[in-house]
Amino acid sequence: MSTRTVTMSVNGEQRRAEVEDRTLLIHFLREQLNLTGPHIGCETSHCGACTVDLNGVSVKSCTVLAVQCEGAEVLTVEGLAEGGVLHAVQEGFHQQHGLQCGFCTPGMLVRSYRLLQDNPDPTEEEIRAGISGNLCRCTGYQNIVKAIQYAAKRLKEAQSVSA
Amino acid sequence: MNAPNERSAELAGIGEARLRKEDARFIQGKGNYVDDIKLPGMLFLDVVRSPLAHARIKRIDTSKAKAIPGVLAVLTAEDLKPLKLHWMPTLAGDVQAVLADDKVCFQMQEVAVVVADDRYIAADGVEAVEVEYEELPALVDAKAALAPDAPVIREDIADRSEGAHGPRSHPNHIFTWEAGDRAAADAAFAAAEVTVAQDMLYPRVHPCPLETCGCVASFDPVRGELTTWMTSQAPHIVRTVVGLLSGLPESKIRIISPDIGGGFGNKVGVYPGYVCAIVASIVLGRPVKWIEDRIENISTTAFARDYHMSGELAATRDGRITGMRVKVIADHGAFNSHAQPTKWPAGLFSICSGSYDIPAAYARVDGVYTNKAPGGVAYRCSFRVTEAVYVIERLIDVLAQKLSIDKAEIRRRNFIHREQFPYTSAFGWQYDSGDYERGLQKVLEAVDYEALRAEQAAKRADPDCPTLMGIGICTFTEIVGAGPSKACDVLGVGMFDSCEIRVHPDGSAIARMGTINQGQGHPTTYAQIIATELGIPSDRITIEEGDTSTAPYGLGTYGSRSTPVGGAATAMAARKVHAKARKIAASLLEVGEADLEWEIDRFQVRGDPERAKTMKEIAWAAYQHAPSGEEHGLEASYYYDPPNFTYPFGSYLAVVDIDRATGETKVRRFYALDDCGTRINPMIIEGQIHGGLTEGFAVAMGQQMPFDAQGNLLGNTLMDYFLPTAVETPHWETDFTVTPSPHHPIGAKGVAESPHVGSIPCFSNAVADAFAHLGVTHLEMPHSAYRVWRQLHASGVAL
Ligand code: FES
Ligand code: FES
After folding, report:
1. Kind and range of the H or E element at B121?
2. Whether residue A137 has its Cβ less than 6 Å from ligand 2
3. What mean pLDDT is predicted for residues B619-642?
4. Statement: residue B504 has pLDDT above 90
5. Spatial distance between the Cα atoms of B340 and B383, rounded to a whole number of angstroms
6. Is the residue at B685 inside a domain?
7. Each residue of B692-707: pLDDT tens digit?
8. ipTM of the modeled complex
9. From the candidates A138, A139, A148, which should be mutated to test the interface with B, based on the most B CB atoms within 10 A?
10. Is B393 annotated as catalytic?
């Protein structure tokens, strides 16, 4: 199987590694970089457990080849907290009981993060549509919606303070 | 000294909406699920599966696969035979092929395994294994299983006239199980003023947790010890099974259930993949990982339901039920490996008289083999309780329609009344406590039921109304917390559960349980029980589960048994610690034990509250100088054998609007009132209810596993198998009443499965109710837009 070298920024760190052409991004992250936050729930791009942020867009990393990410910027759940401080979406999920088994959570969080970057003030309907690529079998989504609303409010407050 | 209520709040004990302790690792991507485990030298196992549902294996050629660099081994049944591991016993008294021996009996059955350096090479190896099959006619329709000319599925036991649950009448017959009093029920029907009958299929569905099943088996040849991380809802019983299979003493087997990404019944059984990974690790002397993919998960590991039910009610003209009869053909697939207490081949199905005072009842279930995957687990429910609740809650609606009695009213007329508890049903169950009228009343008021019925009548009167409006009611009773060991065992092991508590010198504590969390919040809620019992703040209590080498033996988490059994063990262990603490306090304060009062977190001298010893002080003293006659230390363990099951109940109401043009059903409102007895953590309860309702919605509205005539499963990916997204999922309204269980130490009954069990018939009732004025009494699940659209056409009301 042929291999090649890829270089990408993952959670702000430059990473360089040898990968097989067929290596999926999710396997590269989990097995070569030991970033086991993103999970595998289907490998057919339906569940969203593997969601990461790739160049500012949410992608399902089970459907992206590692070699496609040459020069890319990748953000996983492990990169959400900054300087030991949880991101507002992480805090929101905890405060609003937005997780149970936790398996969907890393994907949900990274998706929520991007959703709020793109739309800082979403309606409930926009939130529900915005996370519809991420399945959760445990929570019934209601508290996830609340968690994202909580985070949106937090981020807005933080912005008005800094402004 | 802070005030008692402040101290109480600080403890975050029973009743507090305490935030979850375990969240921290999950929200930072630091969970530890089985596929996150990576050991030095670890290999990966993948499975060669049958494309056919029924076929004889003519030849298996593994040579090409073995020639692939990085492939270390390919195992078939022939390789397992010398170890006598090509078949394994099931929890239901049958045997199951670990790797197909001579023939395959369901599509995707395990035929061979490939062990390789990584998962990509293992998948290459699977592709390269050549298997030649001779196709046999497949048996797909369970109702045809006992026909004289039906294909024989299990040649290995075809001539056995006796099965694990009594006589067998046909090679495809597994068991006949009966409950209740047939003669009494027949007499009630003979004398009845009215009878109704309804056939209904509870389709085959799959629990489909977001994480699939898997394990990492690691055999240490030097020490002769086997450690296996496994997505198991019952690690201790798995250890016993692995001991039986491997011949290793249990003391050399360690099963660890790490973080589990949802179970819902899918992770109770022992699967061929586990056995093969363990064998491969023992043979190769290296750790071996097996993780199934989603298609394998839906196709092979533990489906649920598949009950073809025929129900009948006998009643008086004013709607008082006098008798019930139910017959079921249960499709168990190719091997009887359903996960139930061993003596209960149809689980607790005889709870099917529900919340109603039915004087005479009879049920019969016939289990049959078909060419489908084995299983039959309790998908977010106690064993076969979902099926039972479905049949009675549908039948009572059919009866209401026949008699033109309101669907809430007919329930009121038949409820077991509050003063009748404890109540013994016609099937012999002893319902511990209940107050059904109160719950239903609260719901009807909350939704303004009268107004809804008026709105429905107005809409029915308007031929141009674009929707059909349906109102579904379900007033269910569950039976959970298996169970009293005199009635329930798994392979002879009684279904107790356990807790061991150690209070450390600084007054913090660790507790270990025989149950295992899969998202239910055990690390948070068990600590709350201990906090209230012992006066130690929950934040200073660590909960550990899932490691058989450290946790006391327990039967695990399924069938809503954690709170009823594990929670009870926790309270009882805490009470043992409490009793010793009292002795120490008495000695420290130099008074008699009878002179002490317990006050939240301390013992104080009666009439002299200033003289007190806090639990923290007592803990220190326990390690410093034990009172005479006492051992040092402050710890206790308790194995709790419940005296009875618990009987949570609820009243649910759904309002749906069906689009007469498209057949789409919109859930306008869903109001769920649950009574789970004492409520440990309201936030977690509400979360569990949201989740259970959503799974119920999925089952009622979209989930099924359809097969074609050759036994091909037509939907085994998440493209076809319905898991609702946030967009389809309705908004849930929750409510509660509290009727404690009189026999549970803290009065709790368990809750996580009620919303699944109760919501499914509620949705079906709502959809059928939308068509009730058109003479329709029943529509089969799932209520997909297509099926409902067909009914709209059949009833002549499509737009
Ligand atoms: S694993 Fe990528 S979408 Fe499911
Ligand atoms: S929390 Fe379990 S899948 Fe979402």
Report:
1. helix B119-128
2. yes
3. 92
4. yes
5. 6
6. yes
7. 999 999 999 999 999 9
8. 0.98
9. A138
10. no
Residue B459 reports pLDDT greater than 70? yes
Inter-CA distances, B479 with A62, B76, B354, B560, Å: 41, 42, 10, 9
What residues pair up with B289 in beta bridges, in sequence order? Answer: B44, B216
Contact between chains at B23 and A141 (C-beta distance less than 8 A): no
Quick one: pLDDT at residue B8?
84
Asked if B122 contacts B44 with a C-beta cutoff of 8 angstroms, the reply is: yes
Give yes or no: residues B607 and B624 share one domain: yes
Task: Using a pLDDT cut of 70, give the percent of chain B over it.
Answer: 100
Structural tokens at position B623: 């390690």
Q: How far apart are CA B342 and CA B353, in angstroms?
A: 23
Of these residues, B380, B384, B512, B561, which one is catalytic?
Answer: B380
- Would you say domain A88-162 falls under CATH 1.20.1280.170? no
Give me the helix-helix angle, B754-770 and B682-701, nearest 10°. 40
d(CA A103, CA A37): 9
Asked if residue B347 has a cis previous peptide bond (ω within 30° of 0), the answer is no
Find the domain containing B631 and state its range.
4-31+497-640
Strand partners, B794: none
Catalytically annotated residue among B215, B352, B381, B762:
B381
How many residue pairs from chains A and B have C-beta atoms closer than 8 A? Answer: 179
Rg (CA), chain A: 16
Q: Is B669 a residue of the active site?
A: no
What CATH number should be reported for the domain whose range is A3-77? 3.10.20.30
Q: How many CA atoms lie within 13 A of B485 on its CB side?
A: 13
Sequence-separated (6 or more) residues with CB below 8 Å from residue B795: B771, B774, B775, B776
- Can you give the pTM of this predicted structure? 0.97
> For residue A47, what are its two tokens?
């569940």
Contacts of A44 in chain B (CB under 8 A): 294, 717-719
Claim to verify: residue B562 and residue B586 sit in the same structural domain? yes
Which of B357, B351, B336 is closest to B381 using CA atoms?
B351
Kindly calculate the radius of gyration of chain B based on its CA atoms and give it in whole angstroms. Answer: 28
Torsion angles phi and psi, residue B588, rounded to 5: -65, -40
Closest CA to B732 of B659, B670, B667, B775: B670
- Quote the CA–CA distance of A130 and A137 in Å, as a whole number: 17
Band (pLDDT 50/70/90 cuts) for residue B2 is low
CATH of the domain at B386: 3.30.365.10
In a shared domain, residues B626 and B751 = no
Report the alpha-carbon distance of residue B272 to residue B484 in Å, rounded. 30
